[in-house]
Amino acid sequence: MSRPIYVYLTHHDGTIDDSALEMISAASRIDPDISVTAVAFGFGDDLAAACRQAAQYYREVWKIEHEKLTHPDAEVIRRVLVRILPKGAIVLIPHEHFGMDLSPGLSILLETAYLSDVVDFEAAKDDRIRAVRQEYNGSVSTHVDCDLSNGAVINVRPGIFKKEEGQGVNGLVIDKTEETFKDWIPETRRRFLEIIKAEAGEVDITQSEILVSVGRGIQDQENLEIIFGLARAVGGDVSCSRPIVDAKWLPRERQVGNSGKTVKPKVYMALGISGSFQHIAGIKGNPFIVAINKNPQAPFFQIADVAVVADILDFLPRLTAKINETREKK
């Protein structure tokens, strides 16, 4: 196939997001022989630092700098990408809030195919590829054939593809700013207001090394003591998915995901959580994942290091008792 692949580089405070490394793995599923280029937007020292870090993994990093890009603006970035990307390019963008804002309109401007929330690819052949998506909260997988002859804009679910480690590429940062804005000044109808950070609660789950995370599989608020008991046994903190917060069983500061906190534990236990992309997107740092769910098709099982098909109400008390018994013997 040999079509150019570009990755929209997500970064914060001078550090690239884990998705930047996951996209390399996703691109290799499309074409293992193609060199992938990262495209980074922003302004100032944070952008420069992110580009330097990305160059450790990508052979080329395109840097586009403008004060109007200090905060990501999909309107401006769409028009920039249309100006600088070659015809027939494949663009990979993380499937999170900003990516979902950016991508559909970009595919229209580029006149290319659009795929959203992709969790896997089958090998491309003759300018066609089959992408795997999930429907109905992960209970059904769909296979979508996509014609890549005119390129494509593809949203890739964060946390699904294993991130590339230790590449040591020593790539090149190419400043595309002058080329991009030499005869054009970006305008936008949007105006950045402010960033509101969530208040810290009694537990800061963003600093926890072990998280015992509970979902709707716990069934009743009274059953939460089972989760806290396991957390005490393993020396971890309790976190949760959105339905637990919506039910007001736990405070919002314990929620993991797009609408909650982003966490980077060493161990993440997903208990009775199906594994929607909104939740998985909040888990960074490639932790050791233990997933326990009575649904054998739960999306979390696709990325789990240990997967247990069981009802957590039956399984967790026995697991906690066994852990405590083992610790007492020591």
Average predicted local confidence, pLDDT: 89
User: Share of helix among residues?
Assistant: 25-40%
How far from one another are the termini? 58 Å
CATH H level, superfamily name of the largest domain:
HUPs
Number of helices: 9
What class do helices, strands and sheet pairing give? alpha/beta
As a percent range, the share of strand residues is 25-35%
CATH class placement of the largest domain: Alpha Beta
Features:
330 residues, nine-stranded mixed sheet, 9 helices, Rossmann fold, alpha/beta, 2 domains, five-stranded parallel sheet
Structure description:
- The chain has 2 domains: 5-181, HUPs (Rossmann fold); 205-329, Rossmann fold.
- The radius of gyration is 21 Å and the shape is globular.
- Helix content is 28%, strand content 27%.
- The strands form 3 sheets. A 9-stranded mixed β-sheet has the order 9-8-7-10-6-1-4-5-11, sandwiched between helices.
- The model has no long low-confidence stretch (mean pLDDT 89).
- It has helices at residues 18-30, 45-54, 74-84, 97-110, 177-181, 224-234, 242-246, 277-280, 312-329, and strands spanning 5-8, 11-12, 15-16, 36-42, 60-65, 90-94, 113-125, 128-135, 140-147, 152-156, 172-175, 210-214, 237-240, 267-271, 288-293, 306-309.
- The protein has 330 residues and is an alpha/beta fold.
- The protein contains 9 helices and 16 strands.
- Helix 3 packs across helix 4 (97-110).
